[in-house]
Amino acid sequence: MATQLKPNIECSKEEWQARLDLAACYRIFDHLGWSESIYNHISLKVPGEKDTFLINPFGLLYDEVTASNLVKIDVEGNNVGGSPYMVNKAGFTQHAYFHKHLGERANAICHVHTTATMAVCSHKDGLVPTNFYACNFQDQIGYHDFEGVTVRAEEGERLVENLGDHSILMLRNHGPVVMDKGIQGMFVKMWALQRACEIQVATLSQGEANVVPQEVVDVHQRDLSVMQQQGGAGVFDFEAWKRRVDKIDDSWRK
């Protein structure tokens, strides 16, 4: 059965759940201070459909995003859901290329400009294993040199090449792109990356950092992979933060 969103717009039960999760994610990012005025993006593939995804309406703040006002577009950036809102080209150009060429590993994608992550992206060494969270990502991040605002489709090929087999791409002098096959996994990666970058910035402000040896990083990542199975790839984290934003303002459900 279709769920009525607003006049002349309907969607499947699966799409409505995706809309709820994505709208909640926008509110969580905003609550955590990860929004950037009306810019930046979180996108999510529409379940059961080929090459369509949901993204924020351009011009709305993250705390104005709701399940029903998310824009449904295809990989060419065409509005296929009847939304009256436009989409920021810099959003769908980058996200669409990942969605189109990476399959389910890029079902959920975020791009942010938080101070800490942009600072690390702008540092010559990028993310260094100087803290617990940074060790999570050692040798698991790709880097892409800055080419200006990402509005040109031809840059997409280089973005994918520099991402490689990873799920995080640090756009140098710009900000990170984090992806996963599910929105929960994407969120918990972003949360840990943000913490890693915050702590690195604080650590380097004190002078020379103590870098964790590779053999210890290897053990850390091995044991962490076992522990993460208990958390359902971020499911517990995401649901906990959904409860938090729901207590503050549940309008994202509309």
- The averaged pLDDT comes out at 90
Low-confidence stretches: none
CATH homologous superfamily assignment? Class II aldolase/adducin N-terminal domain
The SSE string, one letter per element, is EEHEEEHEHHEHEEHHH
CATH topology: L-fuculose-1-phosphate Aldolase
Number of domains: 1
Q: Approximately what portion of the residues adopt beta-strand conformation?
A: 5-15%
Biggest sheet layout? 7 strands, mixed
Largest sheet, order of strands side by side? 5-4-3-6-9-8-7
Query: Could you give the distance between the termini?
Result: 18 Å
* Anisotropy-based shape: globular
Task: Write down how many β-strands occur, each being a DSSP E stretch of 2 or more residues.
Answer: 9
Q: Percent range for helical residues?
A: 40-55%
Task: Record the SSE blueprint.
Blueprint: E1 3-6, E2 9-11, H1 13-31, E3 41-45, E4 52-55, E5 71-74, H2 89-102, E6 108-111, H3 115-121, H4 132-136, E7 142-144, H5 155-163, E8 168-171, E9 175-180, H6 183-204, H7 214-228, H8 235-248
